[in-house]
Each structure stands twice: as C-alpha cells, then as structure tokens.
Amino acid sequence: MNRSAIRFVPPLFGAALAVASVASLAQPTFGNPSPTAGSDTSQRANASADQAMYRPVEYANKNKRGPALVVIPGEIKSNNATFLQKFTANNIADYGELELSNANFKVLERADLGPVLKEFELAYNLGDPQEARKLLGMGKLKSTKYVVRFDILKTEQVAAAQQGFDGRAIGNIAGALGAFSGSLGGARAGAVGQAAVGSVHTGESTGVWIIGMRYKIINAETTEQVAQGYTEEKMEVGAKSTSVLGVSQSQQGGVSLDTMVQRLVQKSVWEIDSKYK
Questions:
Q1: Which CATH class is domain 54-275?
Q2: Fewer beta carbons below 10 Å: N end or C end of the chain?
Q3: Domain residue limits, the chain
Q4: What global pTM score does this model have?
Q5: 50-84 burial, b if ≥16 CB within 10 A, otherwise e?
C-alpha cells in the first residue's frame, strides 16, 4: 500500500511544479495608483492612450537572418523647435537598432564600438572609402556589410481646424423674449432659458502634422549608396470640451512625436527587410 502511494506522488508533485513554473514565467502586471482609476474619464483617456501604444511589426522575412550592419545617426533637417527639443539623431538611431534587430538583422551595437564609432561615422558621412576600409579591419567591424541611417526630412503642421458654440447670445435672446411676453410666467421662463442656454459652451480643435523620414543603405566596404527610401505619416492632435450648467467635460490626445518616429522607423525597416535582405 505504501509503495503504491509513493509511486503516485511524483506525478502529482511534477504537475504542481509545472503549474508553479508557468506562473513564474507569466508577464509581470502592475497596478494603477491613480485616484480616478476605473472612472469614466480614466476609461476614455486609456482608450486614447491604447491607440498610441507600441505595437511590434511582423516583418515579412523575419525568419531569414539578415547581414551584419551598423546604424549610424542620420540628420534632422527640420527647423521645428518642438521636434528638435525632443529628439536627437541618436534617439532615432536607437529606434533603428531595435527594429532591425526585431527583423532579424545582425546589428552591431553602437555602444560596443567605443571611440571608433565617431571615426566610423565621419568616414561614411564624408564618403571616404579609404578611411572606411581601414576602420573595417578593426574588431567587430570586420563582418559589417551595410551601414544604415535614418534622416528626418520633414516635420510641419499642415492643417488646423476649430469650432465651438457659445450659448450666451441665444440665451440673451430667450431672456429678452420672456421679458417682453407681458406675463410673470413668461418672464420667469425667459430667465430660466437665458441661464440654461447661456451656460452651454463647446469647443473642438484639431491639428494635423506630417512627418517624413528617409533611410539610406550604404555598402560598408565601398561607402557607395545601395538603396534609399522615403515614407511619411500624419500625426493628429485634438482637444474638445463641453460645459453645460456648470458641468464640464474635456478630452485631449493624439499620437506623440516619439510614437510617430518609431512608426516611421518600423515602416522603413519593413521595406528594408522586404527588399534588401
């Protein structure tokens, strides 16, 4: 009897261990300490934020290993102050490294190249093949096939629209009509109508930006350009508000510049993965 019991313990114990292992490998989740968590405003704000969340791209040739490459910082040719305050060429190159790695290219991390990186960038930006070949003989650079860069060529607000309603004018008319009605009831109704309609205020505004990115693929050995491409995306930012009898409601949102740049990099990498692997 004891032997039979002993034989059945290991499977049960193994199953428990398997359940515990799956639980320990589950993705971490985090709480929401906001005092408005779960409220109507929280749900509407989170619904807008969900549209701007990072979404991985399923690259067409992800199962095929890509050649070794280095991403060097490109140029930001925009004069828009807001964009220049938020971004540097290094930020965009970081996104490029991330997405090219996700597409299964062998990306040599710029951080691992050390002081050679500056000389490397200078040689390619100046189109100096002799100096570039000299640098290619150093360490991890020996296996490099391509040099890739991402340039921002355009960031401009191309359209804006707004509309609104102010009930004070119509409320004043309602009050005047009530006053001229000649009756106490009419005057009271006009006063109530003036207060109610006059309290209505609505506003809505929308701005649309266009951001354009170019990518270049350069032969690591000859410094000659292998390919280039360009893509644009629209970024819409909007706000609206309503106020009636002292009860107000407002909402604003849109895709951020960070998200827009990352999506442009993803579109560019998708094209690189599809055409130049």
A1: alpha beta
A2: N
A3: 54-275
A4: 0.67
A5: eeeeeeebebebeeeebebbbbbbbebebebeebe
